[in-house]
Amino acid sequence: MSKNNIVGKLLLGLIFIFSAYTAYATEATDEEIHHELRQTLKVVESAINSGNYDEMLPVLSEHIRATPINQEFLSSRPDVSRYFTKWFGEKGYLSKLEIRFTADALTELSADKSWGLVVGSGVEKYILRDGRPYEMHTRWTATMAKEDDGRWRVRGIHIGTNFLDNPILGEAERALGKAALCGLAGGLLMGAIIGWLIGRRKKKI
Is 159 helix (H, G, I), strand (E, B) or coil? Predict the structure, then answer.
């Protein structure tokens, strides 16, 4: 075997080893990114479920664009803070919110690994001031961005729900049904009383 052939095979071998190492290193980097993204969602979940809402602010972009389930539009960290204070604070309309995010799959990363898109489902359990719970099932889409300091943050998120499958609407429908039954029963009772009075009057005549 000639010297040139030996050198050529060595070069091919080195190229193969380098390519395999590069692929492994890229895969490992992607796994680190996905791990950080999963931790980001957990921080948001934990902050909401514990009622310490401002703890999520560091993992939200300063230029966050968020649309929660009630379709308000939030365009900054202070907006997010005010939203949770208004709805779930000490004087908020509701007592508590418990939330769970479940991603459908790994975040779809851009070619330069500077942003990603992730979709999934969620469950939002609202506790009213009188203790009544309402569970809402949602779908959500989030854009994640790697910002100048190297950290991944939520840049945008939109949460929606099937308004036809709504426990609050369901209770309203049940309340209407009860009202209709009460009205029917009241009408029958009133009719019976009127009939009895008419019959009694005829007897007197």
Answer: strand
In whole angstroms, give the CA distance from residue 136 to residue 166: 7
Residue 124 lies in a domain: yes
23: its two tokens: 């692929």
pLDDT of 131 reads: 87
60 contacts 68 by C-beta, under 8 angstroms = no
Q: Would 152 be classed as within a structural domain?
A: yes
**Residues 52, 44: Cα–Cα separation, whole Å:** 10
> Given CA atoms 108, 157, 89, 82 in this order, what sign does their dihedral have?
positive
Token pair for residue 114?
A: 């500077």
> What pLDDT is attached to residue 29?
83
Under a CB-based contact definition with an 8 Å cutoff, are residues 156 and 65 in contact? Answer: yes
